[in-house]
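Entry for the shared binder. Reason: the reviewer on the internal report wants the predicted structure included alongside the sequence.
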Amino acid sequence: MEIVCQVCGSKNIENISKIEIFEYKGQKIELPDYKQVFCRNCGESVADSETVRRSVPLLRDAQRVIDGLMTGDEIRSIRKSFKMTQAEFSQILGGGEKAFARYETGKVVQSKSMDNLLRILRKMPEVIDII
């Protein structure tokens, strides 16, 4: 199957890999090995689907750090300290059946109130008995 530019239809394309820089709230987020299909005809470039899949959680975690929220790995660590599954933790803390799966994988960013609750649980695990 021949690949053509999605914008102009040209076959004059190449696969490139570079450091892509995103900006969020005035801060730069660098993603290495950002693979794209680049059109030499019109100059348009489109990230490949694997790059997008890999980049979304990295970008969300970077945004969380900039916003003062915990990363997916930090959330996973807190949940595991209670020896609970994602579904069990969700049932106790709320947010929906798949909430913690989405928080931990970067598909969804937790609310500030959920972040605060998790921080409380990290510092004072006994609070889980009250919840």
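Summary line for the report: The first strand starts at residue 13 and ends at 24.
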